[in-house]
Amino acid sequence: MYRTHSGEALQLTGPATCLDAPGDPAISLRAVGPEGADICIGDPAHLHIRGHAVTERTCNVEVARAVPSGEIARLADRQSP
């Protein structure tokens, strides 16, 4: 899951090797297309991952859905965005 600046949590789908980043990486999400374009449910996007254990990498993902706050509250702390 990815939490936006507005506090919304998004579920992303993509390669497991990309989504399972070890440690506490810094991540950002960018729309495919023009710089600054909006990202909507179902859109492809680029997930940028930067951490101390790995070099920076970019993966292609899809925004699957917005995750309701009640569902996030039930997650274990280590799984919560």
Give a short synopsis of this structure.
With 81 residues, the protein is mainly β. Helices cover 11% and strands 38% of the residues.
Shape: globular
**Proportion of beta-strand residues:** 35-45%
Number of helices: 2
Q: What is the residue-mean pLDDT, rounded to a whole number?
A: 79
- Tell me the span between the first and last alpha carbons: 6 Å
**Domains (count):** 1
Q: State Rg.
A: 13 Å
Overall helicity? 10-25%
Order of helices and strands: EEHEEEH
**How many β strands by DSSP?**
5
Oligomer state equals single chain
Please mark out the parts with pLDDT under 50 across 5 or more consecutive residues, or reply none: none
Helices and strands in order:
Elements: E1 2-3, E2 9-13, H1 16-19, E3 26-31, E4 44-50, E5 57-67, H2 69-73
Antiparallel strand pairs: 1-2, 2-5, 3-4, 4-5
